[in-house]
Amino acid sequence: MAVNKVNEDLLRERARYTFNIEELTNFIDGGEEGTRNRREVEDMVIHVKELHDEVPEDYLSHKERYENAVKKGCILIDLLKEHVLRHSSFDAYKPSNMYRVLSMAKEVSPVLLHMGMFVPTIFGQASAEQQEEWLHKALMLEIIGTYAQTELGHGTFLRGLETTATYDPSTEEFVLHSPTLTSYKWWPGGLGQTANHCIVVAQLYSREKCYGVHAFLVQIRDSETHMPLPGIKVGDIGPKLGFQTANNGFLGFDHFRIPRKNMLMRNAQVLKDGRYVKSKSDKLTYGTMMLVRVMIVSDAAYELSRAATIAARYSAVRRQSMPRPGQPEPQILDYVTQQHKVFIAIATSHALRLTGGWLWDAYSSLTHDLDQGNLDQLPELHALACCLKAISSRDSNSLVEQCRMSCGGHGYMSSSNFPTIYGATAATVTYEGEYTVMLLQTARYLMKAWKEALGGIVLTPTVAYMVTYNKAKPAWVNTPEAIIQGFHAVAVGKVKEAADGIEYHQNSGKDYEDAWNAASVMLVKASECYCRAIICETFWKEIQKHSRSMSRNLAVVLQQLSELYLSYWVLERSGDFFQVRTVPLTRTKFEFVSFASPKCHCQMCTGFVAHITSVVVLAVQVSIQNLTLTFCTRKRNEFDIGSC
Ligand SMILES: CC(C)(COP(=O)(O)OP(=O)(O)OC[C@H]1O[C@@H](n2cnc3c(N)ncnc32)[C@H](O)[C@@H]1OP(=O)(O)O)[C@@H](O)C(=O)NCCC(=O)NCCSC(=O)/C=C/CC(=O)O
Ligand SMILES: Cc1cc2nc3c(=O)[nH]c(=O)nc-3n(C[C@H](O)[C@H](O)[C@H](O)COP(=O)(O)OP(=O)(O)OC[C@H]3O[C@@H](n4cnc5c(N)ncnc54)[C@H](O)[C@@H]3O)c2cc1C
């Protein structure tokens, strides 16, 4: 049988790389230790025969696929436990490491939510005594949990959740109940047949008063028989776009009793006599969602890097068409249109990975502050987690689709792995906070920041430029820093436009809620631009920071990737940049010609043409052309596909 030979074209491309592959690998893994850990785990997993499918999973029944995914989950976890006993170097029981190991199986694991949300919620919301009782069992998978918050009738609007948890002081128990069909929990991963415990988010009632949503740890299946306990209705919600083995389920309670101590009491408590002790902030209940949103940014980068690697390799080996009669068919990688599709996917995977790392550091410092009772950074981090989760998952999902399309018909095969990656990234755009809703959450924060900026109040770091912007001297030269300034100008303009929109609608007689709704498309745009500015600036700054400690050849290529990212997004948003104009240089104020609010239209028809050739736009155009043209042509020869 023919031995699998590596494709000649791919070998040739790989021979042309201009930098040290191991150095880039370490950079992506967060250092040599990270590469060693990852390789140890991959080596442990890759040789296990049972983890490779004899029959494509698409040809299995739903039951077979589920059983196959459970089998693989058990093998991976046993490997991990065995590995931990052999080495101490790999902290397997860090949820993120366990999560990463479980995601090495092609199928989404039915125990992913156990590691992805159940364990982190115990870490983040259980008291010390409760962690003592449950954490070890959860880490050893003696109990398998999920996170049951969403209901058939409510996913976004948490204050509208209908499941009730009513405290009965006579028995010191909570009575969980699903009063309506729409109150049934719907979606939680692993709930269908796998989990025997779950975190349930319910409206807490004590002494006939409602205290809002709180989290409870609930056993739903018998530990021995795995059958649902009396008063529990549970099952699988059925087929979906993807995630077929995530085992998403439904859960209903019929006056189901749990001990008082099963309310997660790190933040708020209910005492034996039913008295409610308030937490420092109601928002702490939402802590797990913030953690998962922060993690999703890095997950989005990882999934996109897989798709970009497949597309880059395919582009190197696929030969198609004959632009020159009689000449060999070229590699499709030589088509600039193919480069335009694939290179931005590579650049974005790096941009999101570095931004994800930056956000994780910000989250880690917040959790430290929260432990000290300092909530100051919570609003900004919530706003960042919301918009970065939304934009990273959306960018990742749309670029995964772009990578699939760049591979023609073979990209449509299940064996390409694009359908699995697409299904996973499509889910992240919706779960943990739906795209639009998340951007509107960030917009809430931006409207407050704008009011403070107008009052000259010093703002938190990611919005500080809103105050300084009116004082900045236009430094429109052809540099990435100038383009980042341009993104700041666009973000300020969109925030101002949205704020003016709300004011305009209020002045025309709408109350705040209706004015907010009428301006909500502009509010979403403002959040998108604020978020894009953060990713552009973070990517650029992180590359500058790390370049100082890396070899020049690698620094050059990573710098070009960040330049490509900047110029790509200026081109994608050139309309917004055209709206950014300077007033005569005697004044340093940037004004934003709005397309939306009527009062600006008159300026639009007169001012717009006059400014279309303003120094701002020309500088931006020149830098875009320079950056883009050089990158996509000159770089074709040097840009390393070999690392893919
Ligand atoms: C969309 C939300 C935030 C709206 O909440 P709402 O009740 O309408 O309140 P407000 O919009 O008025 O906000 C109140 C107040 O609280 C702040 N806030 C809200 N959320 C957080 C948070 N997470 N952290 C910190 N602060 C928060 C908000 O900024 C307001 O503060 P002000 O000072 O401005 O008053 C909410 O309903 C929401 O988050 N909805 C999304 C639900 C969600 O994400 N569900 C995920 C379920 S789990 C899942 O999907 C699992 C997937 C599988 C997997 O992960 O693998
Ligand atoms: C694959 C997958 C796995 C999941 N796993 C879990 C899980 O393990 N545990 C769990 O608890 N949940 C889980 N979920 C549920 C997920 O969290 C919700 O689907 C998500 O929060 C969106 O809520 P929803 O489905 O009710 O959509 P809705 O909120 O009803 O959104 C529908 C539309 O209404 C719009 N909309 C809603 N509110 C507003 C508003 N205020 N302003 C403007 N527009 C608005 C949205 O933008 C959207 O376009 C999962 C979902 C998926 C797809």
Largest sheet: 6 strands, mixed
Poorly predicted residue ranges:
582-644
Number of helices: 20
Number of strands: 13
Ions, cofactors and other ligands present here are: ligand LYYUSVKP, flavin-adenine dinucleotide
The CATH superfamily of the domain at 443-634 bears the name Butyryl-CoA Dehydrogenase, subunit A, domain 3
Q: Kindly, what is the distance between the CA atoms of the first and last residues, rounded to a whole number of angstroms?
A: 27 Å
Q: What overall form do the CA principal axes indicate?
A: globular
Strand-residue proportion:
5-15%
Q: Which architecture of the domain at 443-634 would the CATH scheme give at its second level? A: Up-down Bundle
CATH topology of the domain at 443-634: Butyryl-CoA Dehydrogenase, subunit A, domain 3
Mean model confidence by pLDDT: 87
Instruction: Please compute the radius of gyration using only Cα atoms.
Output: 27 Å
Structural class: alpha+beta
Q: In the CATH hierarchy, what is the class of the domain at 443-634?
A: Mainly Alpha
- The helical percent reads 40-55%
Domain Acyl-CoA oxidase C-alpha1: 286-447
Subcellular location: Peroxisome
Family: Belongs to the acyl-CoA oxidase family.
Domain Acyl-coenzyme A oxidase N-terminal: 20-144
